[in-house]
Amino acid sequence: MKKHNYSAGPSILPQEVFEKASQAVLNFNNSGLSILEISHRSKDFVAVMDEARSLALELLGLEGKGYQALFLQGGASTAFLMAPYNLMKENGKAAYLDSGTWATAAIKEAKLFGETVVVASSKEENYNHIPKGYTIPSDADYFHCTSNNTIFGTQIKDFPATNVPVVCDMSSDIFSRQLDFSKFDLIYAGAQKNMGPAGTTLVVVKEEILEKNGRTIPSMLDYAKHIKAESMYNTPSVFAVYVSLLTLQWIKAKGGVEAVEKLNDAKAALLYAEIDRNPLFKGAAVVEDRSKMNVTFLLNNPDHAAAFDALWKEAGISGLPGHRSVGGYRASIYNAMPIESVQVLVDVMKALESKV
Amino acid sequence: MKKHNYSAGPSILPQEVFEKASQAVLNFNNSGLSILEISHRSKDFVAVMDEARSLALELLGLEGKGYQALFLQGGASTAFLMAPYNLMKENGKAAYLDSGTWATAAIKEAKLFGETVVVASSKEENYNHIPKGYTIPSDADYFHCTSNNTIFGTQIKDFPATNVPVVCDMSSDIFSRQLDFSKFDLIYAGAQKNMGPAGTTLVVVKEEILEKNGRTIPSMLDYAKHIKAESMYNTPSVFAVYVSLLTLQWIKAKGGVEAVEKLNDAKAALLYAEIDRNPLFKGAAVVEDRSKMNVTFLLNNPDHAAAFDALWKEAGISGLPGHRSVGGYRASIYNAMPIESVQVLVDVMKALESKV
């Protein structure tokens, strides 16, 4: 039986993507070869990479606006150090918003490169909200934020206006909602939430901000080198890029980010409504900053945990336990999660209510 | 029809690996979940990573000898910069053997970190042989070499004796032959030749050489941090690690590296014998340094190219054209290549002889 997979990442992808990917492992494009054994320089794979790069820009509304999309390796964790390497001047400084665990990890790497100003932090409240009302120094080389905090279940709704380049880690909500993406200068996202399997990282960068900070950058960490090589500076993560393309094609076929966002809104509304209605549960994050991707919630009475856990496991749900930093539960309802699966969870929450 | 895949990388893997991998994309370990959607922290995947790490050491005869195996992202190209970052002292120096394109790329990155002595080079002869008779400075922080040169078809048979740590890029011949691997201190290999699909890199490192060079290393570039995190410092390339494990299991089931080497010897002997016998062909590399993984050869008369190309394509062979730096042909006969496929190529070479 197929599970209702609420895993925070790697996470659910569309069933048709799994089926096409499985077939390509045996015989890709009817070539008589597995996708795992073809040269990344083959015509067939170059076409995959080119389409994935252009479709990523198209879905974000960034075509023809001076941006390049790359599919690199190393995850967002490698982007944490590539951002300052590529953008922070020697003796320059960067501004960071500390909204959670991954923001903190990004800040740690930036500090190795120079002055790193934390403009605001919600750490004291265990990151249950997005800090607001801060000032970004106008002489910063860039401002860095995390659009969605997977662990804490918070999401930035309004991005700050600033005159400095904006860098954003969108690992857990890329392609899930419409934004004016042209307000960002560098976006990166590990594929393994809304876009594909672990093993590739989407980087979307405004070309004009690169090659200006005067640092000597090792080749594999240099965004400009990857752009020149059309995202093939070295052997890319072929299969992960292919599965990402399949997922991007699925988003486009659904009607693009606009259509997917409507479904995401409906799923989040359904689940938060139950959390707010059901006297047994409470949300973990401040209401106005609630994430539409990672819904964190707690039992008011921890004694109900055993009964609740038995119920959702029985219903074929997996991946629901919360991160240890928050406790309770976390329902990750990424793009590929059907609303029917969310209804299963809501029904389980109701069943608990009538049981206890 | 399944092709005879001579691609230099990504390259052929065992058919049973493709079949198991394809199945796991639909339903991994009968869990009701795809391998692409499971958490890397799940019990099932932690078991995969643990077994892959210990099996890699076992197959190399390095268990219990102070080594750790890691499956990282970024390919050998990222290892090119991680080697100096982790091993070269500030104001230290490293010694490199320049035996081909990838060695040159490694040297380029090392130079960003400090004095980089090239102890010998075969560049003047278009890398048609492995340089010998050089001296490794006894005060170098390490000596770096490339065990097999994929592009030029040469392979180191005797590694130099030295008192300094030895770093070796074994991307294209790892697990293909027996060596005393305990003579190496750091081995790295992109998976996509003998070990798995593109997207993960095996690193085998003697723990005692790390954390001694005094540099501040960004987290994702720090081998010691990856060891402490048991190769899960960030989300690993889950699927690529799983397929690598399947391939390592296949090697073990075959009888380990010793048994695989015998098959590789037989395949290489069969093909080189035909190259030397057939008056239409000649080998590209000096005989004593010929690679048993990448067999480079040329037509004596380029006018025969059209006829030869038609013949091998007709026979279901793919991936045979040589790299532009050498021209001619390159037959990559990695572990998973059956001797029957090599015989098909030999038969085609004979057919050309009787035709022209």
Automatic annotation (TrEMBL), chains A, B:
<dbReference type="GO" id="GO:0030170">
    <property type="term" value="F:pyridoxal phosphate binding"/>
</dbReference>
<keyword id="KW-0963">Cytoplasm</keyword>
<feature type="binding site">
    <location>
        <position position="41"/>
    </location>
    <ligand>
        <name>L-glutamate</name>
    </ligand>
</feature>
<protein>
    <recommendedName>
        <fullName>Phosphoserine aminotransferase</fullName>
        <ecNumber>2.6.1.52</ecNumber>
    </recommendedName>
</protein>
<dbReference type="GO" id="GO:0006564">
    <property type="term" value="P:L-serine biosynthetic process"/>
</dbReference>
<feature type="modified residue" description="N6-(pyridoxal phosphate)lysine">
    <location>
        <position position="193"/>
    </location>
</feature>
<keyword id="KW-0028">Amino-acid biosynthesis</keyword>
<dbReference type="InterPro" id="IPR020578">
    <property type="entry name" value="Aminotrans_V_PyrdxlP_BS"/>
</dbReference>
<keyword id="KW-0663">Pyridoxal phosphate</keyword>
<keyword id="KW-0718">Serine biosynthesis</keyword>
<feature type="binding site">
    <location>
        <position position="150"/>
    </location>
    <ligand>
        <name>pyridoxal 5'-phosphate</name>
    </ligand>
</feature>
<dbReference type="InterPro" id="IPR015424">
    <property type="entry name" value="PyrdxlP-dep_Trfase"/>
</dbReference>
<keyword id="KW-0664">Pyridoxine biosynthesis</keyword>
<feature type="domain" description="Aminotransferase class V">
    <location>
        <begin position="5"/>
        <end position="345"/>
    </location>
</feature>
<dbReference type="InterPro" id="IPR015421">
    <property type="entry name" value="PyrdxlP-dep_Trfase_major"/>
</dbReference>
<keyword id="KW-0032">Aminotransferase</keyword>
<dbReference type="InterPro" id="IPR015422">
    <property type="entry name" value="PyrdxlP-dep_Trfase_small"/>
</dbReference>
<dbReference type="GO" id="GO:0005737">
    <property type="term" value="C:cytoplasm"/>
</dbReference>
<feature type="binding site">
    <location>
        <begin position="234"/>
        <end position="235"/>
    </location>
    <ligand>
        <name>pyridoxal 5'-phosphate</name>
    </ligand>
</feature>
<comment type="pathway">
    <text>Cofactor biosynthesis; pyridoxine 5'-phosphate biosynthesis; pyridoxine 5'-phosphate from D-erythrose 4-phosphate: step 3/5.</text>
</comment>
<dbReference type="InterPro" id="IPR022278">
    <property type="entry name" value="Pser_aminoTfrase"/>
</dbReference>
<comment type="subunit">
    <text>Homodimer.</text>
</comment>
<dbReference type="GO" id="GO:0008615">
    <property type="term" value="P:pyridoxine biosynthetic process"/>
</dbReference>
<dbReference type="InterPro" id="IPR000192">
    <property type="entry name" value="Aminotrans_V_dom"/>
</dbReference>
<keyword id="KW-0808">Transferase</keyword>
<dbReference type="Pfam" id="PF00266">
    <property type="entry name" value="Aminotran_5"/>
</dbReference>
<feature type="binding site">
    <location>
        <begin position="76"/>
        <end position="77"/>
    </location>
    <ligand>
        <name>pyridoxal 5'-phosphate</name>
    </ligand>
</feature>
<dbReference type="GO" id="GO:0004648">
    <property type="term" value="F:O-phospho-L-serine:2-oxoglutarate aminotransferase activity"/>
</dbReference>
<comment type="similarity">
    <text>Belongs to the class-V pyridoxal-phosphate-dependent aminotransferase family. SerC subfamily.</text>
</comment>
<comment type="function">
    <text>Catalyzes the reversible conversion of 3-phosphohydroxypyruvate to phosphoserine and of 3-hydroxy-2-oxo-4-phosphonooxybutanoate to phosphohydroxythreonine.</text>
</comment>
<comment type="pathway">
    <text>Amino-acid biosynthesis; L-serine biosynthesis; L-serine from 3-phospho-D-glycerate: step 2/3.</text>
</comment>
<feature type="binding site">
    <location>
        <position position="102"/>
    </location>
    <ligand>
        <name>pyridoxal 5'-phosphate</name>
    </ligand>
</feature>
<feature type="binding site">
    <location>
        <position position="169"/>
    </location>
    <ligand>
        <name>pyridoxal 5'-phosphate</name>
    </ligand>
</feature>
<feature type="binding site">
    <location>
        <position position="192"/>
    </location>
    <ligand>
        <name>pyridoxal 5'-phosphate</name>
    </ligand>
</feature>
